[in-house]
């Protein structure tokens, strides 16, 4: 379905509501993808969560997938993205949901759980840890070289060069690489995707300047990291525990790359059903 949220048309997958799942008690689950993805990232986990009795809500975040791509870097600031998540829940009549985020969706999820705690019953962060400590370790700053590249106006040209060679070879052989290339090749899509980095990552972060201070997360949190991730190190995820005032749990996925929902679909689905419970 398409929803109008904050003046934008956003495509949203909404499954499980027709089987009598009620609001509250964590039954709804909001799935937030990252770069350069769409709601298709969750295609293996949605059926498992619905079968467990959840109402699953998976939007294409602004700039990605079938949704609108507003112009301007400021349109992709984290507070705008959190506003979209809240707007989607409001439009669907969901007062409180469990939230699962991957990559930029994880960054949005951390901010949502921090600033709108009454809307989040449980939180699962995949790959990307809390923003306050993300760049604390030198190794993470080395792995995040591309975030500095993305700040430059020429990044669009560099990424498209030689048949998208950098994207195809620099991110660990993503399963959905052909879909990513096709999506980003649409008018305005690549700039919209890069604007996530331009709006929310300060270049000085790569010099170790601390990230933004957020209110502590009070709901139960599960951090998930995979040992084949070429973009996100383990230390930044483990450091997230310092920002969680509620119960914290950590799970390490062996043999998977950055895109855990695609590289370890069954393991992740079982983990989510177990952590989020059944309805």
How are the SSEs placed, and which strands pair?
Layout: E1 2-5, E2 8-15, E3 28-32, H1 45-51, E4 55-59, H2 78-91, E5 97-102, H3 104-115, E6 120-126, H4 138-143, H5 145-149, H6 155-169, H7 177-184, H8 189-200, E7 221-226, H9 234-238, E8 248-253, H10 260-263, H11 265-276
Parallel strand pairs: 3-4, 3-5, 5-6, 6-7, 7-8
Antiparallel strand pairs: 1-2, 2-4
Helix pairs in contact: 1-11, 2-3
In words, what does this structure look like?
The structure is a single chain. Helix 9 links the parallel strand 7 and strand 8. Helix 1 packs parallel to helix 11 and helix 2 crosses helix 3. It is built from 11 helices and 8 strands. The longest helix has 15 residues. By secondary structure, the chain is an alpha/beta fold. The protein has a single domain, classed as Rossmann fold (3-Layer(aba) Sandwich). It has an 8-stranded mixed β-sheet, sandwiched between helices.
